[in-house]
Amino acid sequence: MITQSFCIAFIVSYLGSIPPGTINVSVMQLSILRRHRAAIFLSLAACLVEFIYAGITVQFQLYLNQNPEIAYYLRLVTAIALIGLGAINLLIRSQNEAIQVDEKLKGRHGFLRGLILGFLNPMTIPFWLAITTYLESERWVALDGSGYWFYLLGLTVGTFMLLITINTLGKRFGKIANNQLVVRQIPGMLLLGLGLYYLLKLI
Known about the structure:
9 helices
């Protein structure tokens, strides 16, 4: 079950990080500028912050699970959140973000930039709260004991590997990011389907 928790967290995190955002667009631009070392340090720092955010989120979710009445409403909110995330993906088209990066950015400066961008990305909290609640309720992951750490490790490594993929692809990632089917429609339909299925189970 520990291995399963790691693998599922890895897959969800990797796929969930594909839609263009401030962090992966910054990594792509650094890659295009051939600042691969700075891009790697930026990725490490951003993933470190996500590890902290996700850790706090999962602890909060585990605390709520100890209170059955609150847990029910949390699951209800989770179903609505999944439906909302799916609808947003289907209705909103991606736009190319104009993010300026310093052409002379060095490795350690990339790490600092990654920390700043990571902390300015608090939307990871509601995302991981909804996803974790769903995965645990379906018993796809186990968050007790070492399972907690393997789950956090899986989601952190998944995000990092996606950023490394972007760093490797460089400009080619831009074509993927502009493919609405890949970055919006398919994830949107999956999230919408999961949300509706979860809501029907609660009702």
